Amino acid sequence: MNEQFSIKDKVAVITGAGGVLGGSIAKSFIQAGAKIVALDIRQEQLDVRVGELKAAGGEAIGIVCNVLDLESLEKVAAQIIATYGRIDILLNIAGGNTPGGTLAPGQDFFDMKISEWEKVTGLNLNGTVYPSMVFGRIMANQKSGSIVNVSSMAAYSAITRVPGYSVAKTGISNFTQWLATEMALKYGDGIRVNAIAPGFFIGDQNRAVLINPDGSLTERSQKVLAKTPMNRFGNINELNGAVQFLCSDAASFITGVVLPVDGGFSAFSGV
After folding, report:
1. Lower CB density within 10 Å: C or N end of the chain?
2. Chain-centre distance for alpha carbon 47
3. What backbone torsions phi and psi does residue 6 show, to the nearest 5 degrees?
4. What is 3-199+234-258's CATH topology?
């Protein structure tokens, strides 16, 4: 591999590592030679993930952590520094929608449960801000590091039925730009903050709204594909290269960017 794109021996902290997206990126990073610190609130899924990462021949540790608890994050940060002495990469992958956060076809805004709104916005937005505050402070002291957040197509234009998720992801895009500016102005050009904005990928969280029980596409899926010039859903591993690029020296002059990985969805008007 071109050394510009290398993340070999970098210490990469990945929140939500027990999930599908976090797991995919973690496996890709460990194959690229990074040292993985996998964080998740679910012990069982974390144990499975770390086992997979070690089986891939790389160095990985798993730590149970609640990204919405600053005290929990501070303890984890101390443990990472005691183990590795530094943090080079933070991937804020923890997040996603909840079943209760998606309005049913017959519901509207006024039927939305405030508890679900608070759950979804808190998990996504605070679940990005809090780790960035705790682990970003270590990067500030080092004068080096790369943070990558996860935005969404919902931050580009309105997507029906997911109000809380849409607002949170829009906030993440703005926060990414804000923190990129803050870090560069106050701590130098060695710290970069960027985000990816995935297009449409079929996973556990959205399968029911995209795929019918008989395996056919729902009406929502058909609308998504009609606005995706590549005319297909993405494969989860198609996000890995974009994230690695943003964390590598190849992106040394890139900060404050929200990079779509979407098959052209965000570029296409539908006409």
Report:
1. C
2. 20
3. -75, 140
4. Rossmann fold (3.40.50)
Whether residue 204 contacts residue 21, with contact meaning beta carbons closer than 8 Å, is answered with no
pLDDT digits (tens, 9 = 90+) for 39-50: 999 999 999 999
For residue 87, give the nearest of 96, 78, 97 by alpha carbon: 78
Catalytic entry in 130, 156, 165, 187: 165
Active site annotation includes 187: no
Distance (Å, whole) CA 148 – CA 15? 11
Q: Do 131 and 150 touch, CB atoms closer than 8 A?
A: no
Decide if 127 contacts 90 (C-beta within 8 A): no
